[in-house]
């Protein structure tokens, strides 16, 4: 079995992220899930990310006690901007093992804008969470006959954007069931997302 790369802003990590990762392990699709917080994303224009160290700390707290989950800081150690293809190649070399890429529906919708996305498709197994099944014909043609695993895990729709907004509005009670308890405590203690 291989390691599965789960990249993202994780700003903050929430329970839907964790349920996706657990699902992959429970289905026997991975021996380890590597949570890789983005360091300097080329696509992120919608908001300024929280400090990398805070996002890394929240990930560590969220996976505490889960031996199948690991956090990697590789993106802070390689050239920026943080392109998934580069990170996958570095991880593959560093770990000397095969790596799959886990992506969700929101990432899939813009996948054809990613740096070297065709090389990703050719060189790595993809595990795709896609509930709506709405995929462009171009992308479907590219994925045809490639190493792709489709999954349609049903989970509660949670977004980091919504969580940040609720915190800004001081509505912590609305998000208590969306975040691991230790992550929520860290957010409160460090005053994250207040402004």
Automatic annotation (TrEMBL):
<comment type="pathway">
    <text>Cofactor biosynthesis; NAD(+) biosynthesis; deamido-NAD(+) from nicotinate D-ribonucleotide: step 1/1.</text>
</comment>
<dbReference type="InterPro" id="IPR014729">
    <property type="entry name" value="Rossmann-like_a/b/a_fold"/>
</dbReference>
<keyword id="KW-0520">NAD</keyword>
<dbReference type="GO" id="GO:0009435">
    <property type="term" value="P:NAD+ biosynthetic process"/>
</dbReference>
<protein>
    <recommendedName>
        <fullName>Probable nicotinate-nucleotide adenylyltransferase</fullName>
        <ecNumber>2.7.7.18</ecNumber>
    </recommendedName>
</protein>
<dbReference type="GO" id="GO:0004515">
    <property type="term" value="F:nicotinate-nucleotide adenylyltransferase activity"/>
</dbReference>
<feature type="domain" description="Cytidyltransferase-like">
    <location>
        <begin position="5"/>
        <end position="166"/>
    </location>
</feature>
<dbReference type="InterPro" id="IPR004821">
    <property type="entry name" value="Cyt_trans-like"/>
</dbReference>
<keyword id="KW-0547">Nucleotide-binding</keyword>
<dbReference type="GO" id="GO:0005524">
    <property type="term" value="F:ATP binding"/>
</dbReference>
<keyword id="KW-0662">Pyridine nucleotide biosynthesis</keyword>
<keyword id="KW-0808">Transferase</keyword>
<keyword id="KW-0067">ATP-binding</keyword>
<keyword id="KW-0548">Nucleotidyltransferase</keyword>
<dbReference type="Pfam" id="PF01467">
    <property type="entry name" value="CTP_transf_like"/>
</dbReference>
<comment type="function">
    <text>Catalyzes the reversible adenylation of nicotinate mononucleotide (NaMN) to nicotinic acid adenine dinucleotide (NaAD).</text>
</comment>
<comment type="similarity">
    <text>Belongs to the NadD family.</text>
</comment>
<dbReference type="InterPro" id="IPR005248">
    <property type="entry name" value="NadD/NMNAT"/>
</dbReference>
